Amino acid sequence: MSFDVAAIREQFPILKRVIDGNPLIYLDNAAYNAKTAMCD
Length: 40
Known about the structure:
Elements: H1 5-10, E1 18-19, E2 22-23
Antiparallel strand pairs: 1-2
């Protein structure tokens, strides 16, 4: 099974941020809930 990482990243606008030249990554954490663009 493979994942289209670019397609998944497009669903989460916060993942478009770049910090110190590096793209923001998301590490799963039960205390944080990122919303998809469809939720806005």
